[in-house]
Amino acid sequence: MEKLFVDKFGDDSRPLIKVRAPGRVNLIGEHTDYNDGYVFPMALTRNTTILAKPRTDSTVRLASSIEPQIVEFSIDTAVKKEAPKWSAYPRGVAEALRQKKLLKIGMDALVYTDVPLGGGLSSSASFEVASGLALLTVNRAKMNLPDLALACQWAEHQYAGVPCGIMDQYISAMGVKGHAMLLDCRDLTPRQIPLDNSQVEFLIVNSNVKHELVQGEYTARRNQCQRAVELISRSFPTVKALRDVSMTMLEECRLELDPVVFRRAKHVITENQRTLEFASALEKKNWAHAGELMYASHNSLRDDYGVSCPELDALVDICAAVPGIYGARMTGGGFGGSIVAMGRHAAMADAAVAIDNQYPQRTGLQATHFVTTAGAGAHVVQGLAG
Ligand code: GLA
Predict the structure, then answer these.
(1) 32 CA to middle of ligand 1, Å?
(2) Which of 65, 98, 134, 224 lies at a CB distance of 3.0 to 4.6 Å from 264, suitable for a disulfide?
(3) pLDDT in tens, 293-317
(4) 326 CA to middle of ligand 1, Å?
């Protein structure tokens, strides 16, 4: 990649920095982050990496290993929202850091990634976090990682137009190698829970479908949750988010709620319970119970939240029949993307074979997969001297 950097920007004596931010897989706790609930993601061992050199002016020039053009923008005044689409992420992050008065100079930067793009594994969050870390590093500026995650979420909302929760940016910034993170999205307190690799591994399977619905449906789910909170808080005024609602309270309000809104709320409430229970099952190394919770989560996302699709259902089904797989579920926003299966080391290869044999027959598509353990969060691999 150093060679590609020279091809794009020429060779000179400026110091080269290198930063990394991982993609993520969420083990459980889906569509709970924007309801002030619990999530349980882990960082992948796959990353977005940025090589960069500081400039003396306020221009950011950005090249990518897979895009032909070099994007150029200034951080002197508000960063422009301009094409190409992939530049929305670094532009948004640059603007967030500019507004916080952390940037004086720009950079020449090359980005490359081995996080599958559009696979529901937070390639965009990893790009945002890596962009932020690169800009901070060339500026010798400091920002704590939770604040960087919030700046990146702001960028995703304002520049990419996706009203995401905080999970993806937070785990990419704050992941700890060998651990999954139970995150309370209300007060952003993380609890790092060790994963014993000698006992469980994770197979990530990309369905290789991306349904066009994704963004509209995501926004629709957020609105339905908001609607549920409005209606439930009429009976229970202390309710600020679905996080505050129990199933008993929801049942009390059943007649007030449209049946679809009821099911959406039911998913969020039960998913929060499952996520807490999953964390304690993992701590007790009760893999079988943790696996059951993953299946229950998938069914709830499919039936109550309505965000699965036949391809994801087929993948979960195929994995469920493999001995040594404890559990499987869709991961991320849904409507395509990936599933995650948890199992013994030996079951990983068996599940991969089962998928290669059965998924094409069932869907006409090929899936791609890889085994992962919990990787490290964002970090500077090589900084400026001194
Ligand atoms: C996407 C969003 C996250 C989260 C998940 C669903 O990945 O970016 O904030 O809401 O969907 O759990």
Answers:
(1) 8
(2) 224
(3) 999 999 999 999 999 999 999 999 9
(4) 24
